[in-house]
Amino acid sequence: MGLWLFKSEPSEYSYADLERDGETEWDGVTNPLALRYLSQVRRGDQIYLYHTGREKAVVGILEAVADAQGDPGAAAGRRWMVRVRPLRRLEQPVPLSRIKADPACAAWELVRLGRLSVMPVPPPIWEKIARWASSPSAEKGRG
């Protein structure tokens, strides 16, 4: 099972919007590296949703309900999309400041490549975020 992080500006499409919709096509990605990652998403993969903008925090978990496929609204072979559904909101959003404060996360794309909208999440970092999300100290930058 793959582990991913997708970014979204909550004013454009938030976790609450996905909860309301039940499922959506994750598309509109244009960065070549993000597209390469998006093309690797498979049915059953889990995905952290990260809200950009003012929030700058991981807020929920999604699941891919189908393998990535070519986006029919784009030139052939140039774009990808993935159908996703919400699994659950995190108990506590995990802010970017918390992630950046942990030296074990320093090499991760979320920290190094701030504009990348789709990226893999190494299993140890996935587990850290899960722990921080269930800890009341996550917002305070401890954990």
From TrEMBL:
This is EVE domain-containing protein. InterPro entries: 5hmC_binding, EVE_domain, PUA-like_sf. Signal peptide: none annotated. Residues 4-131 form the EVE domain. It comes from the Bacteria. Coiled coil: none annotated. SUPFAM superfamilies: PUA domain-like. It holds the Pfam family EVE.
